[in-house]
Amino acid sequence: MTREEIIAENHAYWDGHADLWFGTTALPVYGICFPTEDDLHLFGDVTGKRMLEICCGSGHSLKYNAERGAGELWGSDFSQRQLENADRLLRESGYSAKLLCARMEENLDVPREYFGYVYSIYGIGWTTDLQGTFDKIALYLKKDGVFIFS
């Protein structure tokens, strides 16, 4: 398969199956049989922090950080259906986030050197350009910002 075919197949899958994944693979869980964020405290105190989630899915990890006092939430996903679910979940919970429909391999329309945290829970594994994705994420982080992924 070509890179474009892989991306098209992944996109079709997530738009077609977003509802089946609603609320799964989200913080505080990092993975099956792994310690959780409640055990590890990788994020520490997020109060007032600007956070960007790559592959935010249904928005549950954004909600998790909102409940812990994050100051500004952004999320990206290439599935419009996932973003619709995230928007609905956050609004129903009294939170909001700036949500972007874009592939992680592209330059996201976000400020550079802006975020204290960029994170991805089970999303980075879907990239077709790991180094390029990491390079872009580094552009979004402010000096001494933290990147967390599973």
Features:
150 residues; alpha/beta; five-stranded parallel sheet; 5 helices; globular
Describe this structure in words.
There is one protein chain. With about 150 residues, the protein is of the alpha/beta class. Helix content is about 35%, strand content about 20%. A 5-stranded parallel beta sheet has the order 3-2-1-4-5. About 35% of the residues are buried.
| Helix and strand sequence | HHEHEHEEHE
User: What structural class is derived from the secondary structure elements?
Assistant: alpha/beta
For the biggest β-sheet, the strand order reads: 3-2-1-4-5
pLDDT < 50 stretches: none
Largest β sheet strand count, sense and barrel closure? 5 strands, parallel
Percent helix range: 25-40%
User: What is the distance, rounded to the nearest whole angstrom, between the alpha carbons of the first and last residues?
Assistant: 25 Å
Share in β-strands: 15-25%
What integer value in Å does the Rg equal?
Answer: 14 Å
Q: Write down the overall mean pLDDT.
A: 93
Total number of helical segments?
5
According to DSSP, the number of beta strands is 5
Approximate shape: globular
